[in-house]
Amino acid sequence: RELQCLEEFDISIARVENPCIRSVDIDPHHEHILVATFSAQVIEVRLSTKNVKNARVLVEGHYTEGEHTMRIQDIAVHPKRKEFATVGDDKWLCIWDSETHTLLRKHRLDASGCCVVYDPSGADICVGLGPAPGKKKGALKAFLQLDGAFQVLNEKTFVVKHTGRDTRSRLTVTRYTPDLSTLAIGCEDRRIYVYDVNNLRSD
User: Are residues 145 and 137 in contact, defined by beta-carbon separation less than 8 angstroms?
Assistant: First the structure.
């Protein structure tokens, strides 16, 4: 017996990074379809509305187009709330709820994120920028892509409050002192860069 196509859904119009489909399933009550994509996202398409463009994103993760070795590079716990931040090779700064395990919000960085930390008050986030480990780049390309730079962002709005760079090498770790007076950043060039937080200018 010949099977006929009853409905067709174009996932390319959904709000996903890469709409190529890895898996799909339909609930027993035929109310919605769950679609897993190449970009580590799971979306829900409701059959009653058939509105793919506004399909709800249920699960998200870090993802880099064309990269099979994309990694999360660092994680930082919020000092006062049950949240944590992650950065990775995909240039996204992601804020997660540690209880519900859901993505709260995310921000596109100017380069791959290699380290991240909240300040002790939880008001700001410091992110180190640079290439993934093992990726060699020319001096000019490294300069243009902000390798070795760091940014201090407002935790709520993601507005960049300061951008600094004293090296072209990949940053590996960043930490604040408990009294919020000093920011220290470790680097692959075997140096530690120390900054007076009060003197970090606003860009």
Answer: yes
Q: Say which DSSP state 194 is in.
A: E
The model carries a pTM of 0.73
Helix or strand or coil: residue 146?
Answer: coil
Pinpoint the alpha helices (H) of 121-187: 139-144
DSSP letters spanning 3-23: --------GGGSS-S---EEE
Tokens of 25: 């399933």
Phi (first) and psi of residue 12, to 5 degrees:
-65, -20
Q: Which are the contacts of 148, defined by CB distance < 8 A and separation ≥ 6? A: 129, 130, 142, 165, 166, 167, 168, 169, 170, 171, 187
The β-bridge partners of 195 are: 183
pLDDT in tens, the chain (203 residues): 788 887 788 888 887 878 888 888 888 778 888 888 877 788 888 888 777 887 888 877 777 666 555 677 898 999 999 999 999 888 889 999 988 878 899 999 988 899 999 999 999 999 999 875 555 555 445 445 678 899 999 999 999 999 999 988 889 999 999 999 999 999 989 999 999 998 875 44
